[in-house]
Specification:
Helix content is about 30%, strand content about 25%. It has helices at about 45-55, 75-80, 100-110, 120-135, and strands at about 5-15, 20-25, 30-40, 65, 85-90, 160-165, 170-180.
């Protein structure tokens, strides 16, 4: 699990009836979104460049789980091989074989994008960046023993009263203890 990253795309419609494609790279070990980007026209060259940007220098994972989409063309495959990444392909029309990425995409949709009208590519990037900050620091996961992808200390009751702090433009909240 420590050396496995899943890669997947999903689409988001805009108010102007454009369709934007979002690429996410999800590290399996702590369910951390290590990289994301948005484009209107994904190509094999663009996706290959995103792989380099997601894993600069010597940070590339040993294994990359992905589907058989045409956007992972020859250019992408050569770039992955050059980075020393072994690609693990899911069977055709088998999204359950990339379950963590599919679950993450479902969470993004249910917890964020179903409540937001996306205006542009830049707007979508800002919304997703704020959501991922919330997701990494505050959203608990049952599979992580009710911890967040970035572990945090649990404060005892004697630290003060509980205060709600808005996140993602008020769409979500996290709760902290503050001294009176």
């Amino acid at each position: 699990m420590t050396e496995l990253v899943a890669l997947d795309f999903f689409t988001v419609p805009t108010v102007g009836l454009k369709v934007l494609f979002v690429l996410i790279a999800l590290a399996h070990e702590r369910r951390t979104v290590v990289y994301f980007n948005v484009t209107e026209h994904p190509t094999a060259q663009w996706t290959a460049q995103q792989l380099v940007e997601a894993f600069p220098w010597d940070t590339a994972p040993k294994y990359l789980l992905r589907d058989r989409d045409a956007v992972y063309g020859t250019c992408f495959q050569r770039r992955a091989a050059h980075l020393g990444i072994n690609q693990v392909l899911t069977a055709p029309r088998s999204p359950w074989q990339n379950a963590y990425a599919e679950r993450m995409i479902g969470s993004i949709r249910r917890e964020c994008l179903d409540h937001v009208i996306v205006f542009s590519e830049g707007h979508l990037r800002r919304v997703l960046a704020r959501y991922f900050q919330y997701y990494h620091r505050w959203r608990t996961h049952l599979s992580l023993a009710m911890d967040c992808p970035e572990p945090r200390p649990v404060l005892p009751p004697d630290r003060g009263s509980v205060v709600a702090v808005p996140e993602v433009g008020g769409l979500h909240h996290h709760y902290e203890r503050v001294a009176a």
